[in-house]
Amino acid sequence: MNYIDAFVIPVPTANKKAFIEHAERADPVFMDLGATRVVECWADDVPEGKHTDFQRSVALKADESLVYGWVEWPDKAVRDAAMAKMMDDPRMNPESNPMPFDGKRMIFGGFVPVVNLVSEVAEDAE
Q1: Cβ neighbours of residue 35 closer than 8 Å, sequence gap 6 or more
Q2: Three-class SS state of 35
Q3: CB 5 within 8 Å of CB 109
């Protein structure tokens, strides 16, 4: 069964281009270490909730935008092995690939899929 790492990041809106460039350098590391897919999405239609919401989850500031993303792995063992190797990869070095966001306010976690529907149209597109 696949394994999913998901995350929400507050990114200064002015850093959108820098964020994309950072992701384009960092995300191949996940793929090289066994991920099957990496998706990073810039918020477009994320409403404020009455009790909780994405904005509050990361203490979003007025000059920031949300990024939601996920990394798909073949299984948790591949993910765990990749995470152990990742910090030694020079492409993840914060000096050469600095994070254009406050990593302390990022939320993330690993998830086991319990439902996974894929349309035939989506399968044909791949």
Answers
A1: 71, 72, 73, 79, 82
A2: coil
A3: yes
User: What backbone torsions phi and psi does residue 106 show, to the nearest 5 degrees?
Assistant: -75, 140
pLDDT in tens, 55-98: 999 999 999 999 999 999 999 999 999 999 988 888 887 787 77
Q: Please give the Cα distance from 91 to 24 (Å, whole number).
A: 10
Q: How many domains does the chain have?
A: 1
Looking up tokens 């996974």, which residue turns up? Answer: 116
Q: What is the CATH number of the domain that holds 111?
A: 3.30.70.100
Structure confidence by residue, pLDDT tens digits, 26-48 = 999 999 999 999 999 999 999 99
Give residue 90's domain range.
Answer: 3-125
Cβ partners under 8 Å of residue 29, min gap 6: 86, 89, 91, 92
Residue 120's pLDDT is: 82
Task: Count other Cβ atoms within 10 Å, centred on residue 53.
Answer: 13
